Amino acid sequence: MSLKSFFAGGKAKIAAIILSVAAASVAVFYLSTIKSKAGSGDEFNPAFKAYVSAYTGGVISREAPIQIKFVSEVVKYDQLNTTIENELFKFKPEIKGTAKWVDVNTIQFEPDDALSPGTSYEASFKIGEVLKMPEDMEAFGFKFQTVPQIVEVNIDGLRTYDVHNLTKQKLNGTLSTSDVADVAAVEKILTAKQDGKVLNITWTHDGDKRTHYFQVDSIARKEQKGKVELAWDGSSIQSETKGTTSYDVPALGDMILVSAKAVQGEEQYLEFQVLLPFREPLTFVL
Does residue 31 have a pLDDT over 60? Predict the structure, then answer.
């Protein structure tokens, strides 16, 4: 998969792609009326519709549980939320975890660890051990895959720490992932340098584990125009996304357009942010 995409004509060439997955945070279920694939590539056996009403399929988050919902009640209430000792599920590639009944007609497999991103899985469930089944239907097969982990980096712009001291700046931005990611691993993705010096980056992470706000600290604003070099490598979160960009740091005497955006709402308008010499950035609305 090619992961290089550049904004044409822009200074900040963000070499990353974001994959839009409508329901990445939850497991996707195929209703029994939907034709799907099962087993080792055979067509879904419609006879299973009499027993299975829904199951995990399609593209799911790497932290999503794996479920099968049956048409009728299978267990009693006193059997709910208790780890099942029998090995009812098998996966290829292998997934280690535990299974339990979450209600009287739904069994759920919970992986011990987050699944590998962008991976296709084949599953087999020993349905004959929980229901009386015909001999040729004692195993129920289904497939699913996890969201490919792709990274997008967006830069918001420079900000001052102190309006009375413009020699130190900070650069704010957002790093987004297409699926949930460990926050400690996310913080290894991005690096920043100015004149060869590594700059410190501080992070704030959203609760969805997909949106990560960063701040590049202690950027020197000098008499001459400078640059901050950003680089990202998604290998710490099992992503192939890599990229670089540079962001201009204006000279102390320069006035510069920091950002411009169209705002859509009840009223539509253009918003510009300008950095003036010896001033905090000002916002103008047209």
Answer: no
Determine the Cα–Cα distance for residues 108 and 149; give it in Å rounded to an integer: 24
148: amino acid identity, one letter:
P
Per-residue pLDDT at 209 exceeds 80: yes
pTM above 0.90, yes or no: no
Q: Distance (Å, rounded) from C-alpha 73 to C-alpha 149?
A: 37
CA max distance for the chain: 82
Domains within the chain, CATH numbers bracketed? 28-146 (2.60.40.3710), 151-253 (2.60.40)
* Residue 97 DSSP code: E
Secondary structure element (H or E) that encloses residue 43, with its range: strand 42-43
CB 275 within 8 A of CB 265: no
Residue 167, pLDDT score: 86
Query: Are residues 228 and 204 in contact, defined by beta-carbon separation less than 8 angstroms?
Result: no
